[in-house]
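call fold(seq) -> tokens
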Amino acid sequence: MRLLIVGTLGGQITEAVKIAAGNGASALHADCIDAAVAMLRSGRSADLLMVDIAIDIRGLVLRLDAERIQVPIVACGTLNDAPAAIAATDAGAREYIPLPPDPEMIAAIVTAVADDAFVYRHRAMTNLIVGRTVADVERDLILETLKHCLGNRTHAANILGISIRTLRNKLTMYAAGGVQVPPPNNGEVRGAA
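ret:
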């Protein structure tokens, strides 16, 4: 996947794009809307635009429409700014992705997004959950996370972003329903055999 990153992200993006390109990512960088449109017009195509939240996304969408350039836009930023994220999606971005304020971590994300295998894995994961109930997907996510944490409830709760109490209540409910629940750090398996 070819990425065009528009903006500076507070000076973080130039270094991040260099690192990502060094890792084999197909990523270009433009500081502003004019430079991005000029790149796209000159034949440097992109499959996705990652746009700094500080850029006028509505203005970019209008410019792309005027040039008849159809490329999906994802807004991104290094701050967790909910109002700006909402404004970006209202202006035409498909979604908002918060990025860590570190060039090396941003480069890792850019590399992963630019990796076509990542896109195929994402599609495969989407196909695995489409058609299933939210409760089933949640149960499988909790149980797989718990397995990943070798039964450590506290660590699993932190990864999942839920309280330990919520995790324990869900595990008790799963076990009562006959689902095999990974033991807490070398304990006995509860639920179905």
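The longest strand covers residues 48-52.
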